[in-house]
Amino acid sequence: MSTLKTTTQVNGDSSSSIVRATIVQASTVYNDTPKTIEKAEKLIAEAASNGSKLVVFPEGFIGGYPRGFRFGIAVGIHNEDGRDEFRKYHASAIHVPGPEVDKLAELARKNNVYLVMGAIEKDGYTLYCTALFFNSEGRFLGKHRKVMPTSFERCIWGFGDGSTIPVYDTPIGKLGAAICWENRMPLYRTALYGKGVELYCAPTADGSKEWQSSMMHIAMEGGCFVLSACQFCQRKDFPAHVDHLFTDWYDDQHDEAIVSQGGSVIISPLGKVLAGPNFESEGLITADLDLGDIARAKLYFDVVGHYSKPDVFNLTVNEHPKKPVTFVSKTVKAEDLRV
After folding, report:
1. For residue 18, which phi and psi values (nearest 5 degrees)?
2. Quick check: helix, strand or coil at residue 92?
3. What is the C-alpha to C-alpha distance for residues 90 and 125, in angstroms, rounded to an integer?
4. For the chain, what is the mean pLDDT?
5. Given 46, 59, 100, 282, which residue is catalytic?
6. Does the pLDDT value for residue 107 go beyond 50?
7. pLDDT tens digits for 1-47?
8. Is residue 59 flagged as an active site residue?
9. What pLDDT was estimated at residue 245?
10. Phi and psi of 89, rounded to 5°?
11. Distance of alpha carbon 127 from alpha carbon 94, whole angstroms
12. Cα angle 91-93-96, degrees, rounded to a multiple of 5
């Protein structure tokens, strides 16, 4: 793997307010979850060896973001090849909790890092695009399920609800995530701001140049560090299938053609690009985060504090889990059992 490291020091300051963070920009090993986790293990170890305390992976890294997959679907149309393609995709997804989650927790503990991992979660036969959170002691903190899949994603992924919009208060800062175009949802962002997010992770599949503007805006709007992680993929990274439809970033159509160009980036609350974007290769994007910048930024603008207007605008977030089936068992009295 070609590894590009970009590290920014903050005035040589080694105080406890400095947290080194790394974004992993790399491709899934498609249809092979064990090898994908092996790849993650090496990348986490590499980031930790460089002193990082937070490691963030892209959307759907475990299980794979199905770019270009069509699953044989058109309006009113399905086919056998598409069904079998979904079978393979479902097989690559993971249970949460489950053995793969246990393995990732052990990797976080072994490398003494906080870990945010993009994964495809399976709950029965429904899949969810999920971000998993782990602390440096090897504990699985919880998950965020993407609440609104984008476009064709809605044919293959379920919808998350308000019960998995966490922000975790950790020794390195308050940690939360918005996945891909959830970052375009003002009310979702506001929910994270309301929970005090400081390390705003944005696992994504959007490698466009325009995405950089959204990340810059969120960092300044939320007064938080934004860590946007996107896969870098070439055609050769995907399983061969005649029904795949790619939008190549370049005109050539050979195996080296770039299908997802990355663009991972780390931005400070003051709107400064600390590392990235990398549009060239797989690699690690690393920066030192001066947590004091959060207070410096909020002197002028605190979106859910002194710059809010709750007498005019307010947001209500329903955090109750939404279950399709609820069983209510009646209490059976002893006399009811007599014949």
Report:
1. -100, 125
2. helix
3. 7
4. 91
5. 59
6. yes
7. 444 444 444 454 433 499 999 999 999 999 999 999 999 999 999 99
8. yes
9. 75
10. -65, -45
11. 9
12. 130
